[in-house]
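From the pipeline queue, job 12 of 40. The input is one protein chain; the requested action is below.

Action: predict structure.
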Amino acid sequence: MFKNALLRNIRRRSFYLWSFFFPFVLMCLFRLMFANLFDIENSMSDPVRVAVVTENADSSVAEGFDMMMEQISKGDDRIVDYNRDITGEDEAGEKIGTEIDAYYLLSGSDIKVVTDSDYSSGNTIEVNILRQVADSFMNEYSLLEEAMRTNPSLVEGIISDMSSSVSHTVYKSQVYKTQINTYNWYFYTTIVMGMIFNFSGGIAIVTGLRGDASETAKRLLVSPVNKFGVVIVNIACRLLPSCLITAALFGVVFLMGIPLSSNIPLIALFIVCGNLFTLAFGAAIAMLLKGTATDRINKTWGFIMLLVFLSGEMSAMMPAIVEKICPVINDINPVTVMNYALFNLTYSSDLRSFYTSMLYLTLASLVMMMLEALYVRRNSYASL
């Protein structure tokens, strides 16, 4: 029984189309669109040319900010080129875009970053760095002011600490193992999308065991064969090729140079738990619908695509938007759960969230499989 069912599933062309080829094409498109885009957006080819304009600013603010600008303008890896010759706002306005890229306007105890529209729209990372410089200074200003008043010898050390806290290349975090490339999210969600598209296999399992849906099921239901065993065999013969297809998608992502966890056993656990849940999930949906396998699959596609959309396949910000509006949707959306599990497996230093997600998927799969077995055993024979 297992061999024949396995051969039938392997020969299904639609299975390869939606579970492998469609995700594969999307990954190739993502690779073309996002290649090195993150590195370009998060690196600076040249220091930003800036000036400082003082307008009724507190003298200690002006003095301290001038000292910090001098500090961060030193060295080959400096992030700014400080032009001290430009001090007036009118002069800075005239020379912005030619001799300087931006200037700081100090007014009272406030510091503003002034750029022209062309520069700010095309150099997002540079503008963010300039703002970070000002924010870093203002956050530490009270400490600097106290040192200047009571112990001037400490000022240089404070300025050095303030300037070293401004960085656009160094990533330090105890939560994540490495710097997170937000564009890689789309590759992880595409792997999960390929897995969830296997829901049709779960629908086929239920349809194949309903006497009102196929002639084969009618013969099976009146036979003495153990119905629970039939369910297990059908799930197993669909789970094996599904796991192999998902493993192939992981291989594609690896060959594309996208970061993945090096923990092979945990990747295997994710593949098995995810595909097992997908089959059980498809079977659970099929128990609520009527018609042939094709009818049930067509009715389910819209719902599946909604889950994929809410999980962030089309927009990486979608899970965050959903979390803000209705967090429970992320908790019950299996596609989002699998997305976060794969993301945490790749980046997180603490894998408790990953294990929790795997436990959730496994328990949900077992419950749905038990319900499916009971449903088959109690299925009405009126159509026979």
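Job complete. The longest helix spans residues 227-255.
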